[in-house]
Each structure stands twice: as structure tokens, then as C-alpha cells.
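From the pipeline queue, job 12 of 40. The input is one protein chain; the requested action is below.

Action: predict structure.
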Amino acid sequence: MSEETSNSSTGMGSSDSTAAKPLKAGPSRGLLIGGLVAIVVIAGVVVSTNSSDAPRSGTESCATTSVDCEIGDIGPGGGKVFSLGGNPAPATCTGTCLEVAPLGWQDTFATATSDDLNSNWSTAMATVATFGTTTAPAGDWRLPTDDELRTLANLSSTDQAKVNGFRDVSSLYWTKTEAGPGAYLCSDRQPNFGTKSKTTRYYSRPIHAF
């Protein structure tokens, strides 16, 4: 209370300007330091939440309206958009764009040491069919065809980082495309497609068309 009275009397009529300046400068420096601390804290929060599976900037419109989607956007089903259904990309996706399920999609099925379902082909098909999200229920997701998985595998390294399509550069993934007794597979950015026995264990990643 006494400081407020002193400030008021100084501002209104006192001729002691040297006494008034420190009182004004103190709060200004405090606000400046506080502002800088706030900026640092906010920046720290932004950095800490910028994980590899986070959406790129400006994804809301794509997630809600399927308009002006870009690679790496969060799609309507909650996955990552990896195919825009044409070149040039359509302004609005009408069943031609594809999103891949987010990392950890199979948390209810996988072991604690697995980032993606690792199973034989029949189990992969059946498990993916049961996967669903709030906005894309079970039945809307499926294993990709060999062409769709090839599209995912052939993304540039920059787009791969946005999408997180694969575990690493050597893990093989199932497709739904059958060829005789086996099914096609591929590996990340080394698209080695071929047929393998359906009883072999490989990884899976569901996709969703929108």
C-alpha cells in the first residue's frame, strides 16, 4: 500500500525524477524477464510435443472435410495421409485418397516389444479387419494391395518421415494381394516385392480409403 501511494504522489507532483525512475524500471525488467521465460517454456512445450508421428501444421480441414489434403496430414480416420489419389492431387478426396493407421494401431493385439503386428497372413487379415477408430470403425480398414503398399514404400524420405509408414528400412509387410500360395510383401524404401509363404510371420499396417 505504501509503495502505491509513493508512486502516485511522485507521478502527480514530485520533482524528484530520480526516485521515480527505479520504481518504473523495476517492473519493466521483471515483465521482460517473465516474458522471455514464458516464451522459452512455450517453445519447450512445442518441441516436446513435436513427435515423429505428430501431424504436420494445418491438418484440421483435411481431417474434417477431406479438402486440400497433403501427405502427412491426419486423415478422417485418424491415420496419416500417404496417397492423394492422383497427380495433380484432387481438391477433395472422394474415396481416392489413402491414409495409413497411426503407429501403435495394434496396441490391443501386439506384445510389449512389438510396434506393429507381426503374424502370418491369415492372422494379419483377420486382425486388421477388427481395427477401428472413432471416425473409421472396424471394417473400414484393411491391408493394402501390392500397388498401395508400393506407393507407401516409394514415398520420398521426407514424406516417409511425415507418414511413419514402416518400422525401418528392412522389415517386410503383408499386402492383401495374393499370388498362388503366397502374398506380396515389400520393405521400406527398398520395394522388394515378391511372394512368401502365408505361414511366415511379417508385419502389417492397415490403410483406409476416404
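Job complete. The longest strand covers residues 172-179.
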